[in-house]
Amino acid sequence: MPNAKRKLSYNVPFYSLKNRVCFIWPSSVPWGKVKLEGVQLGFCQGYLLQDPDEFLERGERKQVYSKTYFKISEIEKDRELIRHFLFEAVEVDRADLR
Fold first, then answer.
1. Long-range contacts of 72-79 (CB under 8 A, 24+ apart)
2. Does the reported pTM lie above 0.90?
3. CA 15, CA 12: separation in Å to the nearest integer?
4. Is 56 in contact with 37 (CB distance < 8 Å)?
5. Going by C-beta distance under 8 Å and a sequence separation of 6 or more, which residues neighbour residue 56?
6. 22 near 15, Cβ under 8 Å?
7. Residue 23, CB half-sphere, CA atoms under 13 Å: how many?
8. How far apart are CA 23 and CA 8, in angstroms?
């Protein structure tokens, strides 16, 4: 994300423009809900993203949606979809739809 600011919160990198847009939460952070050896890509305003196929995990959260990855090959396979969600999350942030 061009011009994004990175800030550590909860010992996890969050990326923001006007507001928080996304984060990368590794399983090594003990108070997260990432199980085993995975890493979670989360969207802070995930509930505002178009996701008709429910690719993103909602759990019991109302606002933050995420996707948990366990292998680099999974990330590579979803590369274009991840880009799509990142671009849409930036547009949501620009429009300040919260």
1. none
2. no
3. 10
4. no
5. 43, 46, 49, 65, 66, 67, 85
6. yes
7. 24
8. 9
Q: What is the pLDDT along the chain (98 residues), one digit of tens a residue?
A: 778 999 998 889 999 999 999 999 988 887 666 566 789 999 999 999 999 999 999 988 899 999 999 999 999 999 999 999 999 999 999 997 65
How is residue 56 written in tokens?
């993103």
Residue that has been written with the tokens 């969050």 in this structure:
14
The count of other CB atoms within 10 Å of the CB of residue 61 is: 13
**DSSP bridge partners of 57:** 66
Distance (Å) of CA 10 to CA 31, 72, 73, 89, 96: 9, 24, 27, 21, 24
Residue 57: helix, strand or coil by DSSP?
A: strand
Residue keyed to tokens 């590794």: 26
Q: Looking up tokens 């949501």, which residue turns up?
A: 92
